[in-house]
Amino acid sequence: MTTVETDQESFTRFVERVGPGLTQALVAALGGEVGREMSAEALAYGWEHWDRVGTLENPAGYLYRVGRNRGRRARGPLLLPDPPPPHSEPLVEPGLPAALGRLSGRQRVAVMLVHGAGWTVSETAELLGISPGSVHRHAERGLRRLRNLLGVTDA
Amino acid sequence: MHDITAQLDSYQDHVDTLYPPVTADEVYHLDREAGRVPTPRRPSLQPRLIAFAATFALIVALGVIGFLIGTGETTDPADDPPPTVSSTLPAPTTSIPPPATTTPIPPPATTLAEQATVPPTTQVVGTTGFPGPAPRGWLEAAIDEEGRLVVTYWAPSSEALVMIRCEDGDCGGESHIATVAEVPSFQHDGEAEPGVMVGDIALRQDGSPIIVASHPEPGSATVYVCSDPFCTNVRTLDFGEQVDRPQLVIAPDGLVHIVYYEMSSNQLRLATCGDPLCESGIVSVITIDDAPIPTEPSIRIDSEGQIIVGYTVEVGNGSTEARVAVCRDNSCPAEPVIFENAATPLISTSREGLFNVWYRSGPWTLGEGDAPEESTVLDAWNLMVADCDSTGCGDPRSVEANWRLLWSWINDAHLHATSDATAAVAFQYFSSDACSEVMMVVTLQTESGKPSINLDNYQPGGYLLDSVSREESVGLIFTGADGRLQFHEVSTANPGGISPALVPRCGSP
Predict the structure, then answer these.
(1) What is the pLDDT of residues A60-87, one digit of tens each?
(2) Which of B221, B236, B372, B435 could be cross-linked to B506 through a Cys-Cys bond (beta carbons 3.0 to 4.6 Å apart)?
(3) Domain B139-499 has CATH 3.40.50.150
(4) What are the structural domain ranges in chain B?
(5) Are residues A124 and A114 in the same domain?
(6) CB–CB of B117/B484 below 8 Å?
(7) Structural domain span for residue A144
(8) Does A123 touch chain B (CB under 8 A)?
(9) Contact A143 B407 (CB under 8 A)
(10) Structure ipTM
């Protein structure tokens, strides 16, 4: 019983720490509904196999791939949320979600995590299981492409 | 319309509201709904062994089936768990230097310097380009001792690393195209990534190229040693499996030095070949820095054989430092020179024993009224240069300031210093003018010598700015055979190769 409580406490702390990022990353990768659903499924998988997952060097990265792979099996169009209402500040281009949808998966995740959610390159790299240099390049190219697609000049 | 990063920030807040983080209670609820019993979490050894054996057998069986049907996939939920790190490089021979304790060079005052004193110009240099295959992404060039241009890049049409040797510095005459190695693209998530992500080229005294290239995941790297200037025969050396951003230089004694970021250890390292042709492989690897994410390295070697490495590290809160290490005798300093709130240091060697460090400082956030666009909060950054020797660097000075950038990134930077200490740098950045992406050339006369740049609008002691409006292009800058500075734009979007011209600035006729 003590072991169960310890595991549950440990897993709860883990979810508190990585849950927000995992959800953000999977929503960016798979879209709103599917992404959040896969985030829940991945964490449920993590809880079910916590004795093994909890000992991994990068359990969040592992669960990200669990969620991403399960989401990819549920084929369907990428559905990113509509932009916030026009009265929001700062104003978001109505075409932003569609433009994000035209990025590659990694570019979209890198751009949304680094530039949208404020993650560091290293945090993003750890979750995605790729090098910081790759995150750097994906974010860089994704942002450049977004600017071109939206005709934003940052002026 | 607000900057794209501000929009992304706002949009992400909106997404977070619509799709809040999954909570642990939610997971436990799902667990109960699925009828899974959350206990025991740590079963006894025997059931675990049985489960492991069954799982292993299942994975092997499904893996074989998957292989037979051509997918190669297993049913492991993660499909591709993090690979075990195994580098082919020898272990570092020196200990990791302790954290730098030198007094950091503070960022410059945030007051804005004057705008460019020389207006943007359009200069056409060189002639027509060569008919090489279109490059994609990374591209590097070198000039041989007779002023001939040698370019290497990855060509998607042939899925190969190619080398183009021009007969002159303009690439206006005949050119020789060689396939250095077939490097297939990397398929990921149904998309083809370039087979070479980043690399570098250096020429031996006889003009034979040595190329180092890093490949997409898992990040392997290869050294290609050409037998002759035309790469008739190429010998390859597997350099490592967790390598990013490799850059190389050939020392006066002919030895090849490669600086790179090792992803598995998160260290910036310097590797040295045992002989000029690297036939004995990498014989020395030393750690330069283990600060968080040392990246964007540049490497130069001075006349005394000192290896000078510039690189960028993250220091938290989104800030970065530019650092410079002067290495010699198989040792790098424990205390690199630090430029605070700076990034992307590029090294140019000027006079004997002296070198310059060019870097980007900032960004500074400008308050309302500082920027011409009233009520707009913008960022700006400065291009700085510092005069250095092996004992340290003097106070940096601003080359150009008030580049109002909400998000800036020096990309594909190429730095060149002419023989009379005039330096030039070409790079891409995101501007606040009519172009969303431009390419910038800055030339500057350093403290000695006269510029050899024969550009009509160049003024000694000043600088010349010019920009290229084309997307998907890379800038190269070098001194041609006639001693004149040349800037080439290389299109990565359309076939046709090099376009050796500065084209009009955005918005001009």
Answers:
(1) 888 888 888 777 666 567 788 888 877 7
(2) B435
(3) no
(4) 4-68, 139-499
(5) yes
(6) no
(7) 80-155
(8) no
(9) yes
(10) 0.90
